[in-house]
Amino acid sequence: MQTYAAAQAPQGARPGAGAGGQQRAAMPQIGHVYGKLVEAKTRQAVEYASVALLRQKDSSVVGGMLSKPNGDFSLEQLPFGQFILRINFMGYKPVFKKVSVTPQTVSQDLGNIRLEANPEVLSEVEVTGQRTAFQMSIDKKVFNVDRNLTSVGGTAADVLKSVPSVNVDIDGNVKVRNSSPNIFVDGKPSTLTIDQIPADAIESVELITNPSAKYDAEGMSGIINIVLKKNKKAGFNGMVMAGVGTNDKYNAGGNINARQGKWNVSANYNFNANRNWGSGQTDRTNFGTQGSGNNYTTQNSDSRNGGQFQFGKLGVDYYIDNRNTISIGQNIVRGSFKNYEDLTSVFSDADKTFTGQSQRLSDNEFGFRNYTTTAGFKHLFTEPNKELTADFSMNKSSNERSGGFNTQAQDVNGSPIGDPRFQFNNSDGKTDFYTLQADYVDPVGTTGKFETGVKATLRNYSSIYDVFNRNNAGVDERIDSLSTDYKYNEQIYAAYVNYANVVGNFGYQLGLRAEQYVYAGEIPSESLKFNPTKARPGLFPSVYFSYKLPKEQELQLNYSRRVTRPNFFQLIPYRDITDPQNQREGNPDLKPEYTNSLEFSYMKTWKLHNVLASLYYRNTNNLITSLSTVIGKDSLLSTFVNASKSLSYGAEITVKNQIVKGWDITTNVNLYQQEVDVFNDKTGNFIRNSGFSWLAKINSETKLPANFTFQVTANYQAPTITLPPSSGGGRGGGFMMIPTSAQGMIKGMNTVDLALRKDFLKGKNLSATLSLSDVFNTRQYEMDQMDESFSQYYLRKRESRILKLNLSYRFGKFDTQLFKRRSNRGDQQGMQMDTGQGF
């Protein structure tokens, strides 16, 4: 005997047609409703029962099928709306069940439906809504990338610049509320930088400012989860796109998805190539000691960067049945960059008399490869919202860097003095990153929920860095004092429990996470080993309280304890003297920093507006920051230390408004105060840095006639004290890192981005997007630093005013028989299943 996956529409009608075969345009066909039929007394599966979905308003048939031998039924490609599920089987009374398909309930498990002698009507009430550019809830904000026009053709860095609460500096370092978050890709840690992820491969960005115990404890200011595109529509569909930008910038790519029966296959590919320029200026005064006068150093740099990277993703889902799914995926990212820099350094004495200068020409190449393999299993129990998931991720990445530095001393006229000094270097790094995780969710009673899970994260890293000096005879000699090799192993073992419930208008969630962190590093060539942390567990509690007020209002108070552990570059005890005037060195004795985070929020929702306001407080012990001190006559050494005190508190408000139909504005303002105390063990002095600052973002989207959409994004960051950059961002192009420490003040910065999109064709399948970033060319980085030994002004500018044109074409076809031939017999029997009687 045969079963059939779906009823066939009448001849001449299209999927989603109502009475009379009229097509319902602009109605998304993405809903999925499924469940299992069982006999009420014996609980045995009921096969070949007639299952039909009817429109509630006119009882017209939307879809139907015969239940399978195991009792399963599955109705896919459903439009949004209110429906009645009708089940008929000979010898049993019909069963009716109300079903609501909305953007929030696209996929629904109706559980085990019992067939018995007496009729039973089951009711369900669902919340309806529309997918917007920015969705807010009390514990998470979701930024839908497909509505962000200014990032089309760019990278994840361009996407994050538009996300409320998030700040991205010109080196790709990410801050949330001026602190470093933990960045995930598809809910898992990744070695990819945000400049290695194309914007067109991203579905959404989730921002969780105060995560519960279910999430990793890493990250002072919470978690940013970058969700990559993965389509699950029936049939096949996809998109192709290409774009060009000023100054040799190109991008192209596409994605395709095919689903039929038990299989869903999706693929994505993106290519980005670009050239950029950069410039910088440093003016430093080194204060004299023991009666000696000051001396001055001025540096000017000009750089050119170019490269390309490719991003590919393949995913397969196999639906064993309605409640069991196996998923596997593979990501491949490869790229290479070249960087050329001309750096001139001028030195003067206390009278500002010229004493010498030098020119350093550097030419570097950087390449990387990243492979991520994932596998997952998901089991849905018959009880609603009860599920078990298991996931495995393996990430392997490598990078190579090579280049040379040609330094020439010069006189006041710029003429060479003596022979040039030529150095070149080769480096090679490899990372193996494994993640294993299992989670279990079990509803308790009618309103409670119990969650628990375990996770293991294993990372192995190795790096070899060799520096050579070419003498006058042309012989290359390895410089042992500048060369190094390094290895480290990092292991994190975690387990958590969460319990949530609701009593009237009061809700609560209590959670506890335990993480055991093990780290060991070594320099094999010097037989040196470092074990800065002991293998002992840390406890990270989280507490959430909420209270619902009348008229769509809600209050929430939550607390969590978090940790930020030092990364490889902060720990490695190697001194980088690529630029002799600005040297850097890691500290293997760094301790992890621990943050206690408290947040109070208020949310109010209207029909066309909503507001989320928060007060937050963070107290951090052992904050990892950096200190800069003068060494020698005119050089600066930056190293990492643990601060003795750090706290941050502020207020943030995010407002969404529909000014008129077709014009939406999202506004985000963050006001904050920061204080940090650092003990300088070299001088015995405390360094205190504190200050008030604020960040504002506005995103305006306007629907215009003739299928035009106009978007404006404006950002302003007020002057703020400096803290070390996040380890979660960063560019891969070989640029020098901005020297930040607890001793500085970053000047204010503002940018405005514009984008205009035009949709073509009847179904808006073809779109053209024209965007201009940093309209007024104001995006740059300026910083002032000062302590008892030096003062410094630093300016950094990258190419930021870029005009881009992107074209995209979307295609697709609903076809439930995509992977197999049609059966004439099956078509005929399928049409006889249920033509619909009025309800």
UniProtKB/TrEMBL annotation:
GO terms for cellular component: cell outer membrane. Its main location: membrane. Residues 379-809 form the Outer membrane protein beta-barrel domain. Keywords: Cell outer membrane, Membrane, Receptor. The keyword Membrane applies. Residues 1-14 have a biased composition (Low complexity). Residues 1-24 are annotated as: Disordered. It is found in: Cell outer membrane. It comes from the Bacteria. It holds the Pfam family CarbopepD_reg_2. InterPro entries: Beta-barrel_TonB_sf, CarboxyPept-like_regulatory, OMP_b-brl_3, Plug_dom_sf. PANTHER family: PLUG DOMAIN-CONTAINING PROTEIN, TONB-DEPENDENT RECEPTOR-LIKE BETA-BARREL DOMAIN-CONTAINING PROTEIN. This is TonB-dependent receptor. It comes from Chitinophaga cymbidii.
